[in-house]
């Protein structure tokens, strides 16, 4: 039995909000070549299949800024990598 995927636009918004809360600039990552359209679509698809996604909106509503996405977030490592890569490029401390 396959998992039921969530509504596309709902998860586009969740990924965008999680990026904001984790200070991950997706537009800058795209502009810098660190995030392709396929990568973005993959993050949304991953979110759509996340069993924790139903609790994500409430978590986002109660957090303005955090260092990391919550542990259950299937895109947690991706957000961290994009943010760390962007910071590295800005400071040229790579």
Automatic annotation (TrEMBL):
<dbReference type="Pfam" id="PF20056">
    <property type="entry name" value="DUF6455"/>
</dbReference>
<feature type="domain" description="DUF6455">
    <location>
        <begin position="5"/>
        <end position="84"/>
    </location>
</feature>
<dbReference type="InterPro" id="IPR045601">
    <property type="entry name" value="DUF6455"/>
</dbReference>
<protein>
    <submittedName>
        <fullName>DUF6455 family protein</fullName>
    </submittedName>
</protein>
